[in-house]
């Protein structure tokens, strides 16, 4: 019986063997001038203002559009991070803030041009800012946090000067203009594509760009990849020259293990969202550059619904805070890659400063926890559910198991509930979850901003549903406090209240681990937690 | 016995028409199913750092969720009637466009995998049937068991680890083509065909290289059912009277096995291949994920996780239509393999 052979199987093997020979050497030259960035999510719109846009879309828009101003950068423990306090001009050559803080005047660069070659004028700036506060887009809610709410506030003085008027001196007005949303659009082009139903051309700008940024879209395949090429005329970077890379490929690779393989094999240059375990092993091999920056504008916490019994009792919340196995959770979830927000020592029992987030003086102490339970009138404990979403399972799952085990020791029976992301956000929005873990990010991390957005009001981001009139009043007042010392004092007060009321338990700030080829330089941790392609270059 | 291509076509058309009620049922059922699933997509998509109630309402309106369910259903059906499958919130594109772009990728992968599986499985099955109980038979059984018990994402990751990571033989396992290769003008959407049409054989080879690992990991998984069914029906066929007669009149061994036994044994294999094909199309989601393959299955999964209704509904409708088509093709193949069978 000779006729059956493994010919098909062997031909597959032979074909795979042939791949060795067929690696393409012709691509070698372009490779050095190309940045290949791989990510788990994808760019789903070219206008970051569209509801539902992803972080990848934010990062892309930073490179395809310019804003009036940009954040500077500073070193934090030897790593470059964005600097909230240093605002430099991007399209603006310079800017002035009037002594009473109510007028911001921006003078535009004379040489700034849109990607189609037409000059950037104050009219374009006004149209773009008007769009941001008028159109039903994401920018509206963001600019609100900087007292920018109406088109009347933006005034064209001359073709190169624009003035912004504020109702109150708001320290977040200027930084807001450096965030993702208030990008400057070529208004002539956009208007051509506006319709009666869509006067701000949101539909067209979703799939096209009309900016003045460092990169021009070459191909855009939502869900797969975006390729951009350098805008040679762009000179808004700090050293006044075009961006380093001629091309940037932003590619979606959903499997984290594959992303790790790609960067290790040298096929990808840069990746930010790897699993902590992969980062650790890549770091230990020492071939690649790993830059780990604590995400100093983000927090992971365990939240308790302050309106649902038994978590409406402050002693129950305190009991939980002293029953969590912080160190084990930190190791199991993140391999210790981050900045802990537990285990502080407050020598005089008061917060060390007025900055949020801060390290709280909590650590596992089961006796103390039992005392608090007794004080709450629940010495035998109770039953509850602990929820997390599937998207965060790799870190939240080991954490949840440890929470369950530890709380079990003081009589609190915990059921772990793993929810699909959409279901989790719905339940959070409806305030139905008693006890869960979540993470938050603020682009403009100032103390009053955190407290106003995450600890007041009946809105979704008030995760713990805390309703404390005094806390809300202090946070609201602090917003417009021009005096630095008084602001600091308000911050300390808020932090002390946080520890006392324990609405939710801050755990840590996870690291942003950027893994890159050793030749890549200039990586900076940005407020949008993605890579700004203009920052990086190759040695 | 019906004869002529015309009659076959008429019958095939009739079969397609008669499947319309089933498709309609699938349509309505999926629609309702998506609505009863927990999770509000508007809240999910309004998950930016500052999306409040207003943004949620706006997305709800955009997705048409502000209307009552019966109203939504009527709108949905009339949209479908006009060939509009709605818009995906994830990609921001019309679902029809997304599916049209991604379906060729899935089909190309599935066809290749099925071809590899058939080329491997039929000889294996025949071999096992010729010597039942022998070492060869046990070997085939072991191979099949291994193939079917290793999930596709495990075999996929293993293949990547060995051929890409360790040996460096395979190209990087991301997508259908090396990011540095330019794409051919699109005719069929099948890269392996489009490159040939464009006369770009270097590109064709690059596309084929990308295709090998995912197709092999999918094929490994379905070799087992195909080989087992081949073996079983070959056994029946080999033991039947006509094979004994053929042998006794002294026909060549090859003619007996291939022309008489295999031809008769192939019918069930075709049926199973059709079923396997349909299931593979939907079930290759893990392979698509592992290899970043821009196909329909991974698209549908992402949509499902984020409660993005329109793509999921579009995907289910697409799968149902394909299933109808595949069944029809199987029946036609039946007719070719055995003229006594006709589609009816």
TrEMBL record, chain A:
Protein's cellular compartments: Periplasm
GO BP field: peptide transport
GO cellular component annotations of the record: ATP-binding cassette (ABC) transporter complex; outer membrane-bounded periplasmic space
GO terms, molecular function: peptide transmembrane transporter activity
UniProt domain Solute-binding protein family: residue ranges: 86-459
InterPro entries the UniProt entry points to: Peptide/Ni-bd, SBP_5, SBP_5_dom
Organism domain of life: Bacteria
Signal peptide, first to last residue: 1-28
Protein keywords: Signal, Transport
A Pfam family per the record: SBP_bac_5
PANTHER family: PERIPLASMIC BINDING COMPONENT OF ABC TRANSPORTER, PERIPLASMIC OLIGOPEPTIDE-BINDING PROTEIN-RELATED
Homology family: Belongs to the bacterial solute-binding protein 5 family.
UniProt-recorded name of the protein: ABC transporter substrate-binding protein
Species, as recorded: Bradyrhizobium ottawaense
Automatic annotation (TrEMBL), chain B:
Membrane-spanning ranges: 12-34, 109-130, 142-167, 204-227, 265-287, 315-337
Membrane topology of the entry: Multi-pass membrane protein
CDD domains: TM_PBP2
Keyword terms of this UniProt record: Cell membrane, Membrane, Transmembrane, Transmembrane helix, Transport
A GO MF term: dipeptide transmembrane transporter activity
Coiled-coil regions, chain positions: none
SUPFAM superfamilies: MetI-like (SSF161098)
Listed InterPro entries: BPD_transp_1_N (IPR045621), MetI-like (IPR000515), MetI-like_sf (IPR035906)
Subcellular location: Cell membrane
CC terms in the record's Gene Ontology section: plasma membrane
Similarity comment: family membership: Belongs to the binding-protein-dependent transport system permease family.
Protein known as: ABC transporter permease
Species name: Bradyrhizobium ottawaense
